[in-house]
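Sample log: DUF4524 domain-containing protein.
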Amino acid sequence: MAKQLIMYTNDAVEATFSDGSKIFLAPCATEYVVQQGNHAQGIMTTKHRTIYTTSTLLPRIRSILTFRNLYAQQPFLVPALVDSDQCYQSTGTASHVRWSPNISLPTISIDDPTQTWSWISLCGRARIDISQCRQIVYITHPLQVSRVLTKQTNDIDNDIPTKYIHIFAPVRRCFSSHRLPNYLSKFVNKCLQLIEQLSNNQNSFDIDDNDDGEWNFQLPLSLPSSSCPQAHRHRLHHEMMFEADIHILQTTVVTYRLEYENPISIEAFITDENNQYLMDYFITCDIQSSFYKYYSIKDKECRLLTLSEHALPPHNERVLQIIRFMSNMRQRLISMTRRVQERPCWLQEDIVLDNHTINDTTEQLGLSSFENEIDDEDNIYRQTSIVNIGHFKYFLDNHIQIKFSNGFILYMTSEQVHSCQMNPSINFQCRITDKKKQTTIDVFDGITEPGCYEQYISAAIDWCMWVWNEKRTEEQRNLANSIQEELFRLKLFSNMNQIKDYQQSTTINPPITNQIEYYSPDDIKQILERTAQFTRTQSS
């Protein structure tokens, strides 16, 4: 069980477990990164394809995908990550889930302590649950995960398979009743109307049978399980995640949801141990206000209370902690000058990261002379592009250039970049060019007096700090590799010397050589003369 789960606005998921390990799931869910260890002992990072998940990681990936499918824009399932007993086969492709209001009236389970309204589809494989506060909607429906090509029974003489069998698995999703996807809006609104009628008059109610078409919804498409063409762009570089990108934060007790669309809202809801029924629900629909709506569901009744940050109920630690956290998040959202809200990778086009050719639409507008002076593609150290934000470049001599999508270009010299990296809170200088107006502005006090360029300066600071951290990590990695290489060389050199010394110590010259020496005639003559001289001396 994960200790904390975070979903970002682009559907990427970050999971933290009790043993300290982390898993970063890509927005399209086709890949994930496992991070184990700590900074003191060393961090080991490995990257995996989701469809090839090993048995040791399977329970964790299943829990992460369950969390992702609850809140993501599009669900993701593959057969390897679904229990076989939950799957079913069909010869047809299910495209709609149909309901009948006459036979599928909402039911309430006896074991349900919160009196959740539930519907079951005609096929019995889909279910919708609406909490008593009517703010949260859970829906479970089938989703096609694969198909298998099989042989038809009447094809006796043909051994080639000619028919597909489609495999479906259930997926559970969660939505706010005031923020529903298009494929569910009509159906859920009909359910809410029916609940309203049942609440007002439990004996009789009217159902409009003429709108049978609205008592069904079309199943969403699952994301493909194949590798995404922008696998390197998945923001698996989690250091680039901004705090304003957080969409869902789930702890062991509470789940928080931050909505950035108008009206901006922050939600917190508490479910039971099995994550089946909603117990308490908090929401603020106005981020500028310090008041919160608190739906307390106890004893099969829903009570609505209005709470203020300055007048909280005593002796209720859970409510105090939730309101304090929501207050902190509210203050952060108010103080934030930028919200990236990156689109999911399957909706992006022409996005490439790092040292590749980037299809930058701003380059089609033509470059001014100022840009030509600073735009040196051969000396780029690191670059990245974010849709609807801009093109970020970091050069080998440590100066940066950022081309924003609205036509502004920010330039910082290497000295100013170094100053920013050493202390991002002190003032620095930068140059901002407006391509449309062909004007250049020099900002001398980027921190204290940013003026209307605060969002550009904040992006530049984040870019400088991220590249600096990347460079530090890379330098440490290169240093470690250099040390390992040097140790290997020393070890190899020492081994070679030991081998050489051993060979020299074991090599002994033989006392008798195998070389045969021959005497020349002159040598024989000299030997005879010395012998004759020696014999004459002895005889005398």
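Observation: The longest strand covers residues 136-150.
Observation: Residues 219 and 243 are 33 Å apart (CA to CA).
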